[in-house]
Amino acid sequence: MMKRLLITGAAGGLGQMARARLPHLAETLRLSDIGDLGSAAPHEELVQCDLGDKAGVDALVAGCDGIVHLGGISVEDSWTPIRTANIDGMFNLYEAARAHGQPRIVFASSNHAIGFHRQTTHLDASAPTRPDGLYGVSKVFGEAIASMYHDKFGQETAIVRIGSCRPEPADHRMLATWLSPADFVRLIECAFRAPVLGCPIIYGASDNDAAWWDNSAARYLGWRPRDNSEKFRADLDARLDRPAPDAPVSRYQGGVFTADSIHEE
Predict the structure, then answer these.
(1) What are 204's strand-pairing partners?
(2) Which one is catalytic: 135, 149, 203, 252?
(3) Residue 156: which residues within 8 A CB-CB, separation 6 or more?
(4) What's the pTM?
(5) Neighbour count for residue 131 (Cβ, 10 Å)
(6) Between the CA of residue 25 and those of 6, 221, 254, what are the distances in Å?
(7) Which domains does the chain have, with CATH numbers?
(8) 203 included as an active-site residue
(9) How far is Cα 212 from Cα 205, in angstroms, rounded to an integer?
(10) pLDDT digit string (tens) for 200-212?
């Protein structure tokens, strides 16, 4: 058990899930977001922090034994907010980690870092990035920062290209990208438990029959997802029409993000 685990982006959907499911990993959860975090439980510390604030992020990381970095812009947006939260914020976080003992980090990257790969292509950790928008570009940058800090300073990071982490898939594409909350928690546990983490790229998806991603390079961590989206297929078929074969959501791993325009300021 860690003494203090920092969870950034704790007011968001993933952050709320992590807040509820990760108290067993640390004596204290330090929860951070730019938004409202509500009231603190006895085992929680609440810190409102803008990731673009270098001094604020430095203070946020001080005293933490581990970091689950879920913070930042999580959808396609215009350049300025993405740059501030996902690029400046990522640099600020890694500089703070370097200054404060290099706590191990789980970084929430995204399938949108490889979104322009076709759904007929199976990817492993060596696949080239093909971001599908500014958000995806920011995640490629984040992966590069994690890699550089590992090579230069030994900072350990689990780079998790999250698919669709939610209680159940919302459409047919998510039959491939779905990551159950329970499997995500198991992955985080493995990342902090592994004797040596390094800086692996891990595809954040459950053990789905409709799979695009190969995690064999990260099997040394001991993560074996247990859930499978196939149990939702019949319900999706009954409720939703299948999209046209030439629609972006059917062609590309990033789905509709590939068809989104650049957002103006």
Answers:
(1) 162
(2) 135
(3) 102, 104, 105, 150, 196, 197, 198, 199
(4) 0.97
(5) 21
(6) 11, 17, 32
(7) 2-259 (3.40.50.720)
(8) no
(9) 9
(10) 999 999 999 999 9
